[in-house]
DNA sequence: CTGAAAGCGCTAACAC
DNA sequence: GTGTTAGCGCTTTCAG
């Protein structure tokens, strides 16, 4: 690997000067700079990022910690965050928890020694903040910017970028009520999911606001993950038990798809017999049949907000400790 | 950050001894080791990975370069590869090309300076190997292990892990022929996609093997991406033009979903009027209605093969230059 | 405006 | 078995 020393000797200057030309913050004689630039070009020199990181005390990587990258919403977030970071000259380290939340702690403990610039927590899982706080504080003190995307941890002093899950769920319920599709069931109140809980709260509050009861039998908890199979099983069981409901609000598009399949398998018409609303706004929702009405989340806006945090680190104004992104109901065929 | 020096002084030994205890390759007196371990524990010491990387000349990160992480198959691959790498103590750097292939070159140029352990190329895009070869060679010479996953680049000396796309496509065609669903159309021969091309070749060869003509009007190129909308538009147009076909083989599950939507929108019955086969075997395919017959790809097996490469780097036997993973037809309702 | 020198944290030689 | 030393490649004082 060609180093500063090689460039320096080729240009007949000292390594320090090469470094100065690279940094561009200190004046260097135009003629000297030209010679250095020529040498860099000639030798194909690339500054060693590892050495820079060691020197600087931190590197240029930001970790994205997801619950499950296979779920469309996290994949979408990963895409946009990567793109945003790249524009800032930062790299994205991907860490997928795969619903094994104990691994989060180990990762956080490793963070300072990895020289991470930041960590974007994007797990829906309810975290044991009592256990995690010391680790997070240690990381933060060593200069790692920690933020939560999707789950609100601002109460714990962690900058959070969240969707208006409550508002989104409420909009969905209002839409269903407006069509007279009651009762409305809810699927996806995973006990361990902070997001599932928030969406459930929005559903519950909206029902109450409309003077509707919240029927526990119509709230389907699922054990883990927001995958289609969980939705299928929950809805199938409800239908088998003869529960009466005219609509289902699901905590993810995948869950909603599973539910719709269960309805279809019983010969029910969507949305006439039962209407379905998903959460996420994933691309394929347009092409399911019936196409999916969904509370659309804006990964791009979330990613831009993440970018803002890291931009502000470079001297700009610090963004708010809590940033809320709107969730918008997209009405299609299923409701 | 607590360093070796701090640990050393706390344990009353030299930094080198601490390092030796950590490495575990050199004998250290049991009593000394215990003192060091105690100091490490006591101070909460974590070796600085950046310093290690600088010293060792390379780090512990492997980059996964995807075409589009939002596509289910790449998200799935990312998940499994991350998990596999983690077991090896390696981190995953995610780089999403987003179909802007010129960025690949820049990334490859940066690779050596990032101290990457390896690069997993997982883009379907046809690469300009004439342009890329020098960059790849430079990276390889600096110790970065480069491998291609999904696209066969073994002819260029790049270890490749590929699915049997040809065999998978052939199995799909054979299945459709066995049901008498001819003619069979193909969607997704993207000009710039090596994988789309491979799958098309399998389709073409299988048709010919069955004594069927390959009708150019039934091969739908799409401009970019394997998204559902492209499939929808291609199939809609074909139907609008009155083209006659009884089945469609799509180069991705997303494309197939789009095609099925187009058929549904025209009131056609699936699979009776037209049958559809996707490519990928994504989880939600079970829950589309009709559920999707698909050529199932095995991201997990691919990831394990990737893991094998990096395991072998640590001294084991080097795996073959080309590894083929079977693609298996999964028959569901759509065909 | 430029050079010399120190040092980020670690480990591999090389002594002892 | 253990300590001393040097150096990975870079940037940043500190001199000049």
Give an overview in words.
- Two copies of one chain form a homodimer.
- The first copy, chain A, has 335 residues and is of the alpha/beta class.
- Chain A is built from twelve helices and twelve strands.
- In chain A, α11 (253-265) links the parallel β8 and β9.
- In chain A, α1 crosses α3 (30-43) and α6 runs parallel beside α7.
- Chain A binds a DNA duplex (16 and 16 nucleotides) through α2 and α4.
What topology does this entry show?
The structure is a homodimer of 335-residue chains.
Chain A: H1 4-11, H2 15-23, H3 30-43, H4 49-56, E1 61-66, H5 72-87, E2 91-96, H6 102-114, E3 118-122, H7 129-141, E4 145-149, E5 159-163, H8 165-178, E6 184-187, H9 194-209, E7 219-220, H10 228-240, E8 247-250, H11 253-265, E9 275-280, E10 293-296, H12 299-313, E11 322-325, E12 328-330
Parallel strand pairs in A: 1-2, 1-3, 3-4, 4-5, 5-11, 6-7, 6-8, 8-9, 9-10
Antiparallel strand pairs in A: 10-12
The first copy, chain A, binds a DNA duplex (16 and 16 nucleotides) through residues 1, 3-5, 13-20, 22-23, 26-29, 32, 47-48, 50-57.
Give a quick precis of the structure:
The structure is a homodimer of 335-residue chains. Chain A has 335 residues and is of the alpha/beta class. Chain A is 45% helix and 16% strand.
């Amino acid at each position: 690997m060609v180093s500063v020393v090689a460039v320096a000797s080729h240009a007949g200057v000292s390594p320090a000067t090469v470094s100065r030309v690279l940094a561009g913050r200190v004046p260097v004689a135009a003629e000297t700079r030209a010679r250095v630039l020529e040498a860099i070009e000639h030798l194909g020199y690339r500054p060693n990022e590892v050495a820079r990181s060691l020197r600087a005390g931190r590197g240029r990587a930001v970790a994205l910690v997801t619950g499950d990258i296979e779920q469309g919403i996290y994949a979408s977030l990963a895409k946009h965050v990567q793109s945003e970071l790249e524009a800032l000259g930062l790299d994205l380290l991907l860490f997928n928890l795969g619903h094994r939340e104990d691994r989060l702690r180990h990762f956080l403990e490793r963070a300072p020694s990895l020289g991470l610039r930041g960590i974007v927590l994007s797990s829906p899982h309810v975290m044991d903040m009592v256990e995690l706080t010391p680790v997070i504080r240690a990381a933060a003190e060593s200069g790692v910017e920690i933020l939560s995307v999707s789950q609100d941890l601002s109460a714990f002093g962690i900058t959070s970028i969240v969707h208006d899950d409550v508002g989104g769920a409420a909009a969905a319920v209002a839409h269903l009520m407006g069509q007279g599709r009651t009762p409305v069931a809810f699927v996806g109140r995973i006990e361990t999911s902070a997001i599932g809980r928030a969406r459930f709260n929005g559903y519950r509050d909206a029902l109450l606001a409309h003077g509707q009861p919240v029927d526990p039998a119509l709230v389907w908890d699922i054990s883990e993950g927001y995958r289609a199979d969980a939705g299928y099983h929950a809805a199938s069981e409800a239908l088998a038990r003869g529960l009466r409901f005219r609509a289902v609000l699901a905590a993810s598009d995948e869950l909603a798809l599973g539910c719709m399949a269960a309805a279809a398998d019983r010969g029910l018409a969507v949305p006439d017999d039962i209407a379905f609303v998903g959460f996420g706004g994933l691309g394929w929702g347009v092409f399911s049949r019936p196409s999916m009405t969904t509370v659309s989340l804006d990964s791009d806006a979330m990613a831009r907000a993440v970018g803002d945090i890291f931009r502000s680190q470079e001297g700009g104004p610090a963004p708010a400790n809590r940033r809320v992104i709107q969730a918008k109901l997209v009405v299609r065929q299923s409701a």
